[in-house]
Amino acid sequence: MPGLTRIWIRTSLPLICHVIVGVLSWTGGWFSWTRQSDEMLRNIEKKILSCVKTVYKRFYVDIGSVVGQSDKIWTICLNEDAPRTPLVLLHGMGAGLALWCTNLDALAAQRPVYAIDLLGFGRSSRPKFASDASKVEAQWVESVEEWRREVNIDQLILLGHSLGGYIATAYALKYPERVRHLILADPWGFPEKPSNVYEKYQMPLWVRAVATAAQPFNPLWAVRAAGPAGRWLVGKTRPDIPRKFAAHLPHADQLIPDYIYQCNSQTPSGESAFHTLMTGFGWAKNPMVHRVGALWARLPVTVLYGSRSWVDNSTSQLLTQHRPNSTTYVQVINGAGHHVYVDKPELFNKYVLEACARADKYDPRETGPESPGPDRTDQTNQSTDHNIS
Description:
Blueprint: H1 3-24, H2 38-48, E1 56-64, E2 71-78, E3 87-90, H3 104-107, E4 113-116, H4 133-151, E5 156-161, H5 163-174, E6 179-185, H6 197-200, H7 205-214, H8 221-225, H9 230-237, H10 240-245, H11 252-264, H12 269-277, E7 278-279, E8 283-284, E9 301-306, H13 315-322, E10 328-333, H14 340-343, H15 345-361, E11 377-379, E12 383-388
Parallel strand pairs: 3-4, 3-5, 5-6, 6-9, 9-10
Antiparallel strand pairs: 1-2, 2-4, 7-8, 10-12, 11-12
Helix pairs in contact: 1-9, 2-11, 4-5, 4-12, 9-11
């Protein structure tokens, strides 16, 4: 079953049921709207980032009229004066920069690290995107490029998770000279939708009916439709997400649902844009499989997967198939799911730092394809490491 369909069943259907039950059992004290505001989001974000020990700065970057009249990108920066190539982090759908909290200290130990709220998400501007998938993709790419220009970064190591991986790849396609190394963490949007998707994933009839009925809606519409129960329902239907942060963040069971709710209870600008990119409930209208061959042959790519993720893990095969003379590093982290960066943060950070170290030694603008050395497979009880050229 496609991952987003499973996620919808795990979230939207329970949300609807909880809302109905809550309304039927309503008492005056329960029925008070959970407020949402940028101030509340800012305060919750600050509490989450309190677990970060490295000194950081938070600020808006004005990128002009990329989509709206005056778009702004919310940014956090750590160790900005370090001389090494900066690492830029792009989050996934419905997330925000604070969810990198378990990674920032390790990644910023020796280089500048920037994490942003993608345009349309978190505390960034929420303009109305185009209604065409190709235009939406171009708008997101230009928002990242204008941000880069304003921050005055020449080259960067670009890391994208899920939707962020799709945007990072699209950016590398258009601005290859700016990307020193591309890191894709459980990326969305690479394979093509199978023609027999229902049969392939053995989806029962009722799931097909629900998926078809839900296609006109944004993926997280139920969070907003829940109204007063929105924050509570986020924690109730996805208790696994706060648990991932519990070992690193005090009061994660409260802060993470609050943060996710505040990120997604406002105007669903980025969420609507993501919905425009989708077809058939979870597949990309313009999948990267048709375009990865156009990436610079000299550009090294690292792909990080969680062994338990719902995302189709064929991206590495697609990259090596369409870029046979290029270097692709593949890391599969056992025990990690789609949120690989927080499921196994120590291993995730280790592999990202290894990719960054390779980027420090190799500039794709100046030399030929990176020499990856001999292929190897290292087996541990936590990960498998493949070096594919």
